Amino acid sequence: MNKHIDTRPYSGWEQQEPDLNFIEKHSDDIDDWRRIRAHVAEIAIANSWTKAEVTRRSGMKEGTFSQWFSGTYLGRLENMNRQMHQWVTAVLEAAAMPTIPTSPTFLRTRISNEIAQTLQWAQMTADLVIITVAAGNGKTMTCRHYRATHPNVYHATVSPHTKTVHGLLVELAAELEVHENNPARLTRAIGSKLGRAGGGTLLIVDEAQNLVDDAINQLRHFSDIYQCGIALVGNEEVYSRFVAQVRGRSYAQLKRRIGKHLKRQKPYAEDIASYIAAWGISDPDSVKLLTGIGLKGGALGQIDKTMKLATMIAIGEDRDVTVKDIEAAWKNRDVEDMA
User: Model pTM greater than 0.70?
Assistant: First the structure.
């Protein structure tokens, strides 16, 4: 005979009377236990969770939880009550929190197409290019997308802490998965990895404005010797050093090596419109407000941060985003006077 299995969502969560030994041993904690147990059962039934699932989520051992819930546990009930109370509180708080909105996925905007074309040029011709695009226009996201959709592409990000030649080499070794502990051999090991594709490799160096001159010259060396494409991506400072007249410094060799310079300091109007549409906004007043926000320093990034906050406001009240939410979010962010 087949055994019948009760698949009702509340199956197994019946709250039976506890064992007499349990009552005698825990008389001072019985009321708390009943209250917490009821909450646990309510949450489990609402979410269709089994006892095994509640055990996993709460972190209590399965045997201990079974004894605790059934009223047969003879250990320190106070400790178990506290653990389950903390779990119930955490679950209820998480359920009350609005879902954090996520940014739109990668968009093929006009500026992203220009960046991708410049990266492709560098990869195909083993050339050195410079991409200086103002913050918030999606240059890093475009670089990541290009890396994910093209073979033999590496994407390293430098910082003020990795701006020297050695710091850069260490960062590149991590990105290229080069395992060489001898500093004297590190440059050659990285170069060999970059040249492995026979001229079809591209190294994208993001936040390149942080690099010192010698580090940039090291990248030129990689491109020259190992025939790989190099893309220096960052703000205008990346390129401005090549046109500045600095006593004792000559950038002629580096400047001559630059095959292409993509410069874009302001977002395209069509890109702003596309990004607003990607957030699902079509109300004319909201579009107008977000367009103005997108024209400020930070461009699409300003729209993104503002819409995340506005969406959380709307979700908290279980409705769609309105222009008032966007106004409130922008005011709450308090970045009006930022460049």
Answer: no
